[in-house]
Design a protein that fits this description.
TIM Barrel; RibuloseP-bd_barrel; binds orotidine-5'-monophosphate; OMPdeCOase_dom; Aldolase_TIM
Length: about 270
Amino acid sequence: MNFFDRLHDRIRTVDSVVSVGLDPDLSRIPDHLHEYDLPRWAFNRRIIDATHEHAAVYKPNAAFYEDPDGWRALEETIAYAHGKNVPVLLDAKRADIGNTTRQYAEMLETVDAITVNPYMGRDSLQPFLADEEAGVFILCRTSNPGGADIQDLELETGEPVYERVAALADLWNENDNVGLVVGATKPEELEALREQVPDLPFLVPGVGAQGGDAEAAVEYGLADGVGLVNSSRGIIFAGEGQGEQFAQASEQAAKRLKNRLNQYRA
Ligand SMILES: O=C(O)c1cc(=O)[nH]c(=O)n1[C@@H]1O[C@H](COP(=O)(O)O)[C@@H](O)[C@H]1O
């Protein structure tokens, strides 16, 4: 089954478009969890137990797992999320020459969707795009301040680079498996992109810790009700400093965000 059909069902089941970002920064994980063999896994398990009823997906960012213990923690996390019937969107922002990217695309055997970088062009994404079951979220207009450095550059046609990326992504969507990443810190761009590519679901990060616009994220991020609004630190570290009670605060934060976003859903 196509990822966006599965996501549609998941959104209906939990009545939520919240993507819970699993970015378990070791320096912020509660002290008592450092006694475990894999503190990041111990942390994520508790976060998943507390938040899965509000999560449309979990989005682990690969940067927080790129060491031997991290890979094990990630593997356990993915299996545990799946055990709770929650799809996993791996935020890996990958792409490379074809021969290399074919190896990256193997990741799609264990996760449901991935974020990819369009900078190297179509062939660098082809192995991801060819996977009809997986979701492929292409970075388009990112939430960070430096996103403007390249993505806002004007082409000879007058359109900014990010609009060209959106047009290409639409073209590459032969398997109905493509979405765009557009930051909630960029509401005007969100609105323009929604008009430009009405059928592509967006992953909208940047609400919560980055202060993005939750209303715009919902109003423009969803295509036919399907899309994701991500918060990572705002949910997983909501209970920072509360010791063993931390996961309850995460549950409340996930629920609050779900309810807030649901106010804006049609
Ligand atoms: O691809 C992403 O998810 C992403 C794109 C973007 O433009 N901005 C952005 O913040 N992200 C990711 O979304 C998450 C945001 O985390 P918080 O700021 O803690 O909610 C991090 O994992 C970022 O790497």
